[in-house]
Amino acid sequence: MSDAPSTIADQRKNLLQTVIINDRAMDVNDADFHTRIRLGVNAFMAEHYAAALAELAPERAEQVAAELAEYLDDGALPEYAWDRAVELGHDPRQWLADFEAAREKRAKQAGAQG
Asked: What is the pLDDT of residues 39-68, one digit of tens each?
C-alpha cells in the first residue's frame, strides 16, 4: 500500500499544504527557521514545475507522479538524489564538505557568543 501521493493533483496539493502550514508553524526563534524557509521555497517551486508539466503534458505528469510515489515509498531518497546529482555532473561530496564547514563555522560563532 502506498503512503505517498501518487497523482499530480495530490502531489501539488501536498506541496501547497507544505508551504502554507510551514509558514504558519514558523517561529523566528526556531533553530530550524532557515531550513523551514528553504523547505517552503522548494515546495513552492516544485508545485510550479508540477503545474507546468500538468498543463503541457497531462499524461506524462501522471506518470511522473506515480514514479515519484514509488521513490518516496521506497525510502531511499538520499541515494536517488546522490545518483541523480552525479548524473548531472555535480559533486555531492563537495556539497557535504561545504555543509559541514558551514556547520562548524556556525558552531564556533555560537560558542564565541555564548
From this structure: 989 999 999 999 999 999 999 999 999 999
**Grid coordinates in use for 44?**
513552492
Instruction: Please indicate, yes or no, whether the overall pTM of this predicted structure exceeds 0.70.
Output: yes
- Report the percent of the chain where pLDDT is more than 90: 63
- Cα separations in angstroms, 112 against 28, 32, 81, 109: 21, 20, 35, 5
Find all residues with CB under 8 Å of 77, minimum gap 6, and list them. Answer: 71
Give Cβ neighbours of residue 4 (< 8 Å, ≥ 6 apart).
68, 69, 70, 72, 73
AA letter at 112: A
> Cα(39)–Cα(30) distance, rounded to whole angstroms?
14
Enclosing H/E stretch for 81 = helix 77-87
Handedness of CA 83, 1, 43, 61 (dihedral sign): positive
Give pLDDT, residue 16: 92
Going by C-alpha positions, the residue among 71, 58, 86 that lies closest to residue 3 is 71
